[in-house]
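User: Teach me something about this protein's shape.
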Amino acid sequence: MTRPLRKLYVALFLSVLLLLFGWSMRGVLSYDAPKQFTVLDGGLAKTFESHYDEHFPVKTLGTSLWAGLDYLLFNEGRPGVQIGEQGWLYSDEEFKPEADGPLHIRENLALIKGVRDELAQHDVLLLLAIVPSKARLYPEFVGDNQTSVLRQDLYQRFLNEVRTADIAAPELLSSLQAGKANGAMFLRTDTHWTPEGADLVAQQLSSTLKRSITLAGEPQVFITQASPVKAYKGDLTRFLPLEPLFSHLLPPPDQLRRNKTQAAEQAAGTDALFSDSEMPVALVGTSYSANPAWNFAGALRQHLQRDLSNHAEDGQGPMVPMLKYLQSDELKNAPPQLVIWEFPERYLPMANDLSAFDAQWLSALKQSDGNRHLVASDQH
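Assistant: First, the predicted structure itself:
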């Protein structure tokens, strides 16, 4: 190598180091020390290290490069996502086999029946809203991804089992399939349904209830207002850390129109009337119900013409929020007439972390019989 060429290489190498050093300084300059910190035990150093590690450019570039290679060469993302066709992303929970899946199905079905019995002791009816998986509703974009044997007909078997146990559960899949002709029922880059899909399910639940029971209280008028459509990057894109090198490979963002539902009195500024209204319905479930972006609770209010209390939680699955509700003061002191339990089908074969609950109480809940049929042939 000639001396000029060697000097050029050295100069380029130093330039890259200088560039990375300058870029790394952004992480230093953007650091804000906490108002209360300790120096002697390393508390300040730990907060700085955590902040700098999060904003370290070499790490970001390396992550992006590796993710880009996985995406380009193998059409794969990080664990958590399955990449479909035409920009569709799916949660890998809808495809992968679950260790001890049949056992978890038996235990979860037993708990569901125990929930039914526990609510019945308070003279509360249970309506189970089984949300079909995104892959079941949109199999045309799944591509080469294969669903495990245990999950292939899980929705219908789940539905049949709870109906056999005298738990009301409307068939939501066919309604959502028909609704696809009028708009997207699930977001393309997200785990969840669209506000339109949530509204359609709320309509069907309301129709089911109106044919069988009369809700307490006077009907209320609820008004839904829609916001302008905005680009929305779904939660599944976080498993594709392609930025900044391969940002152009990311699926285009979804277009989301958020809805907001209010009682007519509340919309008119007369909150006192609204606050005195009865709540004959309680909603329990997952982020499908908890996240206001989908407005599922609001759609239920509008179609039921009744207010409701929402006990759904993000990131906890369907079982934990329900068990919390069973132990709540609200159920003990002011039980509703009806509980709507939103339960995505994909959670049925999954284990639950129930360590926060009393083991004897859980064992008593699981004493219900009749959960053998669903898993009799599942020994995979």
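Now, about its shape. The mean pLDDT is 84. The chain has one domain: 90-375. If you'd like, I can walk through any region in more detail.
User: That's plenty for now, thanks!
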